[in-house]
Amino acid sequence: MASHFAPKGRQKRNARNFRRGYSRSEAAYYSKARRGGSGGGRSGRTVGIVIGVVLAVLLVAVGTCGVFLYRSAMSVKNSASVIMAQASTLKDSLKNGDESGLTTSLNAIVSNVNDINAEVSSPLWTAATLIPVIGEDVRSVQTLGTVASDLVNDALVPVATSLSGTGLSSLLQDGSVNVELIRTVSSSVSDAIPVIQSSVDTISSLPEAHIPQLRDVLEQVQGPVSEAQGLVGQIEPILNLLPQMLGADGQTRTYLVIAQNNSELRATGGLPGSWGTISITDGVISMGEFQSILHDEGLQVEITDEERAAIATNMDTDPAQVNCTADFTRVGQLARDYWAQEGLGTVDGVVAIDPVFLQRLLSLTGGFTAPDGTAVDGTNAAKVLLSDTYWMFGNDGDAQDAYFAAVAGLAFETIMDNLGNAGMTDLMGVVEQSGKDGRLLVWMANEDEQSLMVNMGLSGRLESDPTKPVLGVYLNDDTYSKISWYASSSTVVGEGVKNADGTTTYDVTTTLTNTITPEEADNAPTYISGTNGAKRDVSDMLDFVFFYAPAGGTITDFQVSEGALFEDYGIADETLSGLQVLRMRTHLLAGETATFTYKVTVSADAAEPLSVRTTPLAQESLMGQQGA
User: Fold this and answer.
1) What is the pTM assigned to this prediction?
2) Domain boundaries of the chain, sorted by first residue
3) CA angle at 315 for the pair 313 and 320, rounded to the nearest 5°
4) Mean pLDDT of the chain
5) What is the DSSP annotation of 122-191?
């Protein structure tokens, strides 16, 4: 009986254990364990194997995702490389007016940006955002993908498409400017600005990346996007105002053009020898006759007592002296008034150019042959107009004027006929550099348009902002001749020294040299050597030299090399438009140099180093280093 009931008893215990929450296998395990059975070793190994298999499966799954994520990231990287390469090609196509190349590059950029956005928006990347720490970087990458897509599809494509075929050849044809094309581009640029602004804000708000490579990418992206924002912001007002400046909607704009002759220096460039007008209606340009109104009697324009004291010349009664002030804002206003007093009509603006600017344009358009057979181009136009003419015709003023007018006229004709073949970027480079040098200056009667000239660096105004300190060094010829061809000038600014009151003081040295040789002076016609009775010999070069202190600053400790100044003239210390102005009169024989040493102290509010603005000389090679 015992043998009969014993199994039943074990069955009951196992059943009770099962009812208490154990599985049958667990119950058997615990029963053996209590009895000290040896079967537990095999079961432990089985559980370990199961756990190992589970871990292996998990590792394979994660590893597989990692491989796919890596491949996806490499795809994104490759697409980004293509975009960067095509962006460079796109810029070249826009510069060269290559419509086919522009389309190819644009399509490649759009395709690759869309590929990037699709990759980083995939479930794989979304899953990766759940990874601690790194997930935040993944989200930043996804955001960059969205930003890139918006920038390309909503900004780059519309702007580039509007620019397609808008090389200078499309903008300038047969003496006309395509105003409607400018309006089309203006509209697309205006629409792109909010997109670019939003992109800049989004990128700026991204958290600092944990992955160094992504951190570098974010820094690299912010620069170009912000630069694009600034560039578009600069271009928009230009495009918005250009149509009205070009006589859109049937209006006629008339501009007075003054050719400055740097061989007889004036503060803003040179003698304003030739005056004429350009009229524009719906972009169609017509040239008026150029003439001289210098020394005409009965003219009187208004200048201030301050201007009269500082400049010390009759700029209010003689157009020849109108640009003896360095403030082209005033030159433009006075020139407009002189033109009107001559009974020649009202003008909407005044443009001053010099032969060096014409030479730079000829380097883009190609040259021409002068009436005497001389080849005039982008290497010698300034020399032909500013020097050769006077040696060729001696003291025959009528012959000089006729030759000068003929060469200048052919230069304008060549430029207008061929400028459309130049590169847009090259032209903008010439305009920007010439504005910076003071070889292209513009004053507009319309306030908005004048503000645009200021922003473009073409206004030639005196800087009145103490945070942007500018030292002015200007020359007005007093030899009554074209001897300024031989003038050489250099201004070197030393390192600034911070003062206790927050101001900064710079040691500055300016030199002025008469480079004519005694032999050249002896053989020069009077038109070159000059007729001022104060000359000591035929080589003597006489000038009024002006030093304008920066806004909120001063010029002190002024010293001049012995013998350079007229003894009975001294150094006048005046004020003009709130700026300290020092004026003196120099005389230099052949080969002599005047050296000026002085200290310039700038305002404590100055946010940048002292810069120098100076009269543009006839020969660029004779202009020395400006600044430290």
Assistant:
1) 0.81
2) 2-52, 64-245, 250-433, 462-626
3) 105
4) 86
5) SHHHHHHTTSTTHHHHHHHHHHHHHHHHHHIIIIIHHHHHHHTT-SHHHHEETTEE-HHHHHHHHHHHHH
